[in-house]
Amino acid sequence: MPRSGLAPPPGRQGPGPLPGGALQLLDLALARRAGGPLPGEHRAPGLGSGTELAQLRPYEIGDDVRHLDPSASARTGVPHVRLHVPERALTTWVVLDVSPSMAFGTADRLKSDVAEGAVRVISQLALRRGGRLAVLTSGAPRDRVLPPRGGRRTLARIGRVLEEGVAPDGPVDPAALAKSLWRVRRTATQHGLVVVVSDFRGAEDWQRGVRAVAARHAVIAISVVDPSEVQLPDAGVVVMRDPESGELAEVDTSSARLRERFAAAERARRDELRSDLRRAGARHVELSTRGEWMRALAEELR
Hints:
about 300 residues; Rossmann fold
C-alpha cells in the first residue's frame, strides 16, 4: 500500500474511454461555469508581459530593455518603456473524496471509477489553455495535496494519485471534506474554479465550507451515486457493513415496506443535498455508476 494509505478497491473497472467529442462539449461548458472568460483571459493584478497596454512611461534604471518602445522614444527624444497587464491562466482546484464509501458499486462501475473519470476530464480541460490545476484528496489516513501546476507533467502526477485508489475500510473523520474545503478557501486567493467530487455520505459541516469557497470561486459539486443506494434491491436477508464505521446490520430486503422506507429516506437525503448545494452557491451535478457518466456530465453542465 502506498504511503498515502490508499489502495485500488476490489472490482475496480476504471472510468472507461474519454471520447474527444464529449471533451470538446465539456470544454465550453466548463469555461462558462468558471465565470465566463476562458483560461488565459483573466486579468492578473500588477504589470507584466501580457498583451494589453497598461502604461507607457520614461525608462528607469532597472527596467527591462526589451520593453523599450522605439516609436515613443523617437517621438519624445527620451527612452520610453511599454508595460502591459499580465495574463493569468485560470486555476482549477479539485477536491476528491477517497473515503472507503467511494469503493462501493453494484452497476457498471464503482463510485471511485466515476470519480476518477470526472477528475481526469476536469484535469485535461483545466490544463488545455495553459491553466493550472491543484488536487486535494479527502477522507484518507493521509490526504494528498498537489499544489497548482500546469503542463503535461501535472496530468501525469494527478494520474498517479488517481491510480492509488481509495482508503481502506475504517473510521473516517466526518469533517474531512469540510477541512479540505477550508484549506482551499485559505490557499486560493485569486478567483478560480473549484470542483468537489464526492458521494457526500457521512460528511459533516461541509456546507459552510462550500459557501466560503463559493464566495470567491465558481464551484461545481459532483455527487456520485449507485443504483443500490437509491433503491434497495430485493435480495432476501443480507448482512450489510458500513465501510466507514464497521457496523454490521442484518436486513431483510424482501420486505416491500422496508424498501419503500429506504427509498423515501434516500430521496430526502438527495433532496437535502441538492438544496444545501444550491443555497451554498454551487452548481450540482449527479453522476451514477450505471450508464454513460461522461454523457451525463456533459448534459448537466451545458
